[in-house]
TrEMBL record:
Enzymatic reactions: dihydroxyacetone phosphate = methylglyoxal + phosphate
Species for this entry: Pedobacter montanisoli
Domain named MGS-like: residues: 4-149
Protein name in UniProt: Methylglyoxal synthase
Encoding gene per record: mgsA
One GO MF term: methylglyoxal synthase activity
Keyword Lyase: yes
Gene3D superfamilies per the UniProt record, alphabetical: Methylglyoxal synthase-like domain
EC numbers on record: 4.2.3.3
Alphabetically ordered keywords of this record: Lyase
């Protein structure tokens, strides 16, 4: 079995579609005291809004439609993101929908906790694993990586 040990200080990626940014801002305000103990990364405008709301540093990437979702996906694949909070809008067509699906897929491939709604994000933040180390089980992809084409 392959494991990845997550420290008590997690790196949390924050993403929100335009119609979900207010939901995310209410959520980060509600969890301000917990979020200050973690490293925050966000896509473009979301990162600016969260940084202003929390008065905490946020590493800002590109806007989602300009590649920010893909940047976060790459960081997940490099084991540089531990948790993904992604409030996406199921009622609005997104021009970068393939990027959104790819981001969710890579989160599952690398077995990171992901929340796409407030309730699930609340459950993740209230977990004792958020304040302590956690040993995450990873799928062994060696056979896949070493296959002969």
């Amino acid at each position: 079995m392959i494991y990845k040990e997550l420290s008590a200080r997690k790196t949390i990626a924050l993403v929100a579609h335009d119609h979900k940014k207010d939901d995310l801002l209410r959520w980060v305000d509600k969890h301000r005291d917990l979020l200050k103990d973690h490293d925050l990364i966000a896509t473009g405008t979301t990162g600016k809004l969260v940084e202003q709301s929390l008065n905490l540093p946020v590493q800002k990437l590109l806007s989602g439609p300009l590649g920010g979702d893909q940047q976060i996906g790459a960081l997940i694949a490099e084991s540089k993101i531990d948790v993904l909070i992604f409030f996406w809008d199921p009622m609005e067509a997104q021009p970068h929908d393939p990027d959104v699906k790819a981001l969710l897929r890579v989160g599952i491939v690398w077995n990171i906790p992901m929340a796409c709604d407030v309730a699930t994000a609340d459950f993740i933040m209230s977990s004792p694993f958020m304040q302590n180390t956690y040993k995450a089980e990873l799928t062994d992809y060696d056979a896949y990586k070493n296959r002969k084409l």
